Amino acid sequence: MADSKQQSRSSAESPQPLSPHSAAFSSELPNFAHPSEEEFARILDFYGLQWMYEPRSFLLRWDGERTREMFTPDFYLPELELYLELTTLKQSLVTKKNRKLRRLRALYPEINIKLLYRRDYHRLLANYGFGPLARADVEGINRVLLTTRQIQKRVSELGRQVSHDYRGRQPILLGVLKGVLPFMADLMREITLPVEIQVMAVSSYQGQTRGGVQVTKGLDADIAGRDVILVEDIVDSGMTLNYLMRYLESKGPASLEVCALLDKKVRRIVDVPVKYVGFDIPDEFVVGYGLDYEEKYRNLPFIGAIDSYKESPK
Ligand code: IMP
Ligand code: MG
Questions:
Q1: Domain covering 144-306: architecture
Q2: DSSP letter string over 196-229?
Q3: Domain with CATH 3.40.50.2020 in the chain
Q4: Catalytic residue list contains 263
Q5: Which candidate in 236, 263, 280, 292 is catalytic?
Q6: Ligand 1 centre and the CA of 99: distance in Å?
Q7: pTM summary value
Q8: How crowded is residue 28: how many other Cβ atoms within 10 Å of its Cβ?
């Protein structure tokens, strides 16, 4: 039975918090093994995601009663029923961790666990302007990922699809500033329904500051009982979107769907349902058509990839 292979570290070793950490209730942090874990915990706090640090150890190999190998994932996100393991270590150690993860998945198929590589973690930080990738020199646009024509064609398809799905209704297109501006402006002109428009703005993670996401520009009008389509430029980790969805759901809309121009699925931490996706894109930092790198490039009419993600040689 799977239960006999589980051990709670909290009973065996130093006491661990039994209730999930939430910035709303506590500002005390556990003793993290690595500074990156602490920074990551801050990001989770910022986005209002509850977490527990190393709440459970999984038995991977045993000899009768003797434990031969254990694995303790760094974080557990109870609302998402998701374990996260941060690996900021050397590549050779990553291989070993991957092996452990495969074993864990085989023994505990009901457990949902994701491994965040050093690169994923640095990119996440870089989105907020931190870490070794944030200050990388941008030598300009590397290459065009999506041409103006490709974007126009796809946006027009999305508009047609939305018009079809919402026939007879009057949805609110709710855009999240600032990156969404070109997309929203084009999308609404491809929708053949009497839509209403609203825009919101939220702050993103600023490092060691206290408090969570701030809605810096709120809703213009009540959305209770309305069909809302949240329009986003890009979904990356999904943390911003998850926060926004919870915020908007609390306002009682009749329906709430997401329409995102770009989706970096491979980087998802929080699985938010995105009904309309313009393009699935690979794990690259992209700019243009509203998207910025340090506020630059938003006005490009196409979407390009830049080199800001190049790891500094170690
Ligand atoms: P998430 O909370 O990680 O999904 O973050 C989404 C936000 O990160 C977006 O609204 C963008 O502001 C920013 N972002 C993520 N990836 C990119 C990118 O490739 N180019 C520009 N901004 C990005
Ligand atoms: Mg944004």
A1: 3-Layer(aba) Sandwich (3.40)
A2: EEEEEEE----SS-SS---EEE--SS--TT-EEE
A3: 144-306
A4: no
A5: 236
A6: 31
A7: 0.76
A8: 7
